[in-house]
Please model this.
Amino acid sequence: MTDLKRSILVTGGCGFIGSNFVRLCLERWPHARLVNLDKLTYAGNLSNLADIAADPRYRFVRGDICDAPLVDGLFNEEGFDTVVHFAAESHVDRSIDGPAEFIRTNIVGTFTLLEAARKLWSSGIQSSMSRVPRFLHVSTDEVYGSLGDTGLFTETTPYDPHSPYSASKAASDHLVSAYHHTYGLPTLVTNCSNNYGPYHFPEKLIPLIINNALNGRDLPVYGDGSNVRDWLYVVDHCAAILAVLEKGRVGETYNVGGNSEKPNLEVVETICDLLDARVGLLSTGKPRRTLIRFVKDRPGHDRRYAIDATKIRSELGWCPTVDFSEGIGRTIDWYLQHLDWVEQVTTGAYRDYYARHYGNR
Ligand code: NAD
Ligand code: DAU
Model:
């Protein structure tokens, strides 16, 4: 039984990937206890986990991962043997507008968690634990920088982050690696490509385009729309994380990707066509593609990301199960069925951000 008595800390469990992970983890590991530590920033929503909030195996704690007394106290109280660290500031555009919070949460927050794990797991308690502990740090392919027209990111690609977001994630990856090499902390790192699916906050490309296209608003495409991302359905990413927790070799990094490279314009046009087919043309009688607007490019915009996932496939037997055409259809259907969720998360603060970011673009 892989989950027997497992005591798990998930950070950032009220965000997009974290909430999908909490749900999958409780489903796959029925004997696990799971504590979700989340600050509930603009990107975190309690409603993302409303369906499991009352599960006796689950506890939510509102708090900041940079708050060392809180984090240390939780480690001592709960005796975690597993940490899955999602909490981060995650939006590249926001990191360009204001990097400070990215440095704090992504670097200092990761350091705070590493220290708490190191203290607990070197205190002698480890010998009484039913399993070897695991600290899994969820990271991104953006740490590797940008690819040209060919090639893929492997686990040995040199780090070359370009945005304040990716630089802060790269710093956190290095800290995790240092804690493994210096203190023997049993760490694992996953570097994943772009996720999409349910509960994706509508500031990121796919949910933003779905929401705007549904409402007949402009569809902002940066530059000429030819930048390429490697899209992975979020539940497949969560399954990869479970596989790494169960079977990954301590101290290792695993790249996770969708093997599904698409230029942004193709993604946007696909969403337009699928929405036209599902809900009919715009009230003007025009197709949604007519809403596409090419806007000023993102500064330092990485050209292309693409993951070589050979290692996780050959060592752990993981591969994506949902291809893009199926996943994007499922995602659009989810948003159509959860218009109330979209409305709830796109309140005043979202509208202010939107006006600031896109107003003069
Ligand atoms: P998200 O922005 O949707 O969610 C982040 C969550 O972290 C939110 O619930 C937020 O409230 C919480 N949080 C932020 N700061 C916090 C703090 N100081 N203390 C406690 N909680 C805090 O992010 P996401 O897209 O779900 O990404 C999750 C993780 O996966 C991140 O580490 C990100 O770098 C990584 N990642 C994301 C993608 C992607 O495509 N979204 C791909 C690869 C890796
Ligand atoms: O690659 C993994 C990363 O994917 C994660 O680490 C990040 O947390 C996650 O946000 C995501 O980063 P991107 O910058 O790739 O995602 P985003 O959805 O912001 O943008 C995807 C592409 O679409 C990118 O090339 C920029 C472009 N874009 C984005 C927005 C928001 C547009 O053309 N228009 C837009 O309005």
Observations:
- The mean pLDDT is 96.
- The longest strand covers residues 134-140.
- Residues 11-12, 14-18, 38-41, 43-44, 64-66, 86-90, 105, 109, 138, 140, 169, 192, 194-195, 201 surround nicotinamide-adenine-dinucleotide (ligand 1) (CB under 6 Å).
- The first helix runs from residue 16 to 28.
